[in-house]
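Posted in: Protein Modeling Q&A

I'm a second-year student putting together a small comparison for a lab meeting, and my supervisor asked me to include a predicted structure for Polyribonucleotide nucleotidyltransferase. I've never done this before, so apologies if this is the wrong subforum. The sequence is pasted below exactly as I got it from our records. If anyone can share the structure token output, I'd also love a short note on what stands out.
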Amino acid sequence: MFKVFRKEIEWGGRKLTFETGKIARQADGAVLVTYGETTVLCTVVGAKSPKPGVDFFPLTVNYQEKSFAAGKIPGGFFKREGRPTEKETLVSRLIDRPIRPLFADGFRNETQVICTVLSHDLENDPDIVAMVGTSAALTISGIPFLGPIGAARVGYVDGQYVLNPTMDAVDGSALDLVVAGTQEGVLMVESEAKELSEEIMLGAVMFGHSGFQPVIDAIIDLAEECAKEPWDLPEPAYDRAALKAKLRATVGADVEAAYTETVKQVRYEKIGAAKAKALEALAEAHETQAIVTEFKELEADILRGAVLKTGRRIDGRDTKTVRPIVSEVGVLPRAHGSALFTRGETQALVVTTLGTSQDEQIIDALQGEYREHFMLHYNFPPYSVGEAGRMGSPGRREIGHGKLAWRAIHPLLPKKEDFPYTLRVVSEVTESNGSSSMATVCGTSLSLMDAGAPLARPVAGIAMGLIKEDDGFAVLSDILGDEDHLGDMDFKVAGTDAGITALQMDIKITSITEEIMKIALGQAKDGRLHILGEMSKALTGAREAVNENAPRITVINIPKEKIRDVIGSGGKVIREIVEQTGAKIDIEDDGTVKVAAVDTKAAQAAIDWIKGIVAEPEMNVVYTGKVVKVVDFGAFVNFLGSRDGLVHISELAQQRVGKVSDVVSQGDSVKVKVIGFDDRGKVKLSMKQVDQATGEDLTKKDGPAA
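Accepted answer (user: helix_wrangler)
Welcome! Here is the predicted structure, written out as tokens:
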């Protein structure tokens, strides 16, 4: 019934298997990939014809993790997988980025890739498995895909590169880098690093590129046995060269003039006018879609040619100069930390909020539930590019850019035990013309330091671009939006003056060489150091204390056996402390107690209360307490937190007492001395001996009033 094709190789010390022909046979391409015991089903389906009027390639990639893959039942009321998690969104982008440039020019058929995690061994991350599985599915599908690609994860442990480290090994690595590409070169890089040098990062990229070559060979072998017939690409319905010549003659001078405008909005207005002129002049002889497509090509030719010929860019800069920078901190009076970072026509307002461990994000992942105490949320409202648009939940772009900035900052954060705050950073992009994600990195660094978060060093980021033609190439520092859209590379590098913390690269051509990457990294280092210098004009390091509007967190330790006493039955005691003092209290299993409050008096009151609960009564010490109950034989006094003791009627006063209520009443504040403990550990107290004492031989302590 099944005609199964299978390829198996040893890769990074584990078995990698590609299998097709048994599952999802109605898809154009379907490959079941297993690495270790992590299994991902990768499918691809393409529409047989394009939709009319589509001027772009409608590719959709969906990566999804099923809870059953790790033997789990989903949380929540419905007990089924819901909207994509952040991890699923990020991996979908990770797969999309290296495959998108490799579809044939002019291919406009809607194409969907779906990768489903069916089994997870909690050692091998499914993201790499999904990437190579997608490559295999596309290669055998017949869809015009100019692959295959390979992908690998690279770690750096004890000065050595590690191919595809396990998930546990990544935690101890100085580098977590994912690289993808073809046999010829690299297409995509995504990484987080602990301040590594440009040489180590470049070496990691090339190590990964070399490491995934056996995977590409295995996919080619599989395709030779079972690939479907390649699809025919329709010939263009018009003479592209002739239409481009007409466009250049009609509006070429107008487009060239537009690209001499340094102000983005003015430039866009002139380009829009040139496009309208072209549509009007050529509408009778050519279809609108053809004119629009070739007009974009004309824009690219003019922009790219000018840079390669003159070394001058749209805004008049040379290839290495960074746009003017203005850094400001403390721009919002009530925020715990805030910064406004402006670089040219790109601007980010970044705000930091300090919280307690109760504010940590709980993440339910396949490998188990964990808590995240650093969150970075990136927002890109439509007004930032002068447009009116839809407002809603963050899209893939927002999530991806936020995670890139998170990776850049994460290695420099203080340890949680040294700075016990939950950190939430929000970046509102208020203007955008090139690399708002790197502006977010710079703004986040300043905002955190403004809030008093002791970063090890300030962090900055820069976006590099590339224009590559047959007769040469140019690497561009601090690219504009147009240079991103019409160029060949978006290469983002973030780090400190000591090294790189995050690197992300996307290539729009088939690949780039090691030489180009080396030049880009060196140029990016110079730009990053310049930006750090400009940022230091606003703030050189973290403020000595957290903002006055932020909670102060005090950490104390109590015996583990006393945790129950502080919490109380059903949480009664701790709720009472919180309600009466206004402080937030977190108690960990090891007895660590964190008390947080904006008001220092409230925090101290809560601390004293807790210390009173866990303190042990000491013999011959005088405490201040409150009478909580009066009985015939004496009075019960709450004198040390929730600790009660009995003052026997014989210990109430110097003279003989006939009736307890003649001396004390419930609610009275009294001084009592600890005179002993009975067989059950109950405390014996005396008021009489306090009266008798001269005070010279007694230590007086006040217990908090209940």
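A couple of things worth pointing out for your meeting: Confidence is low (pLDDT under 50) at residues 694-701. The CA atoms of residues 652 and 662 lie 10 Å apart.
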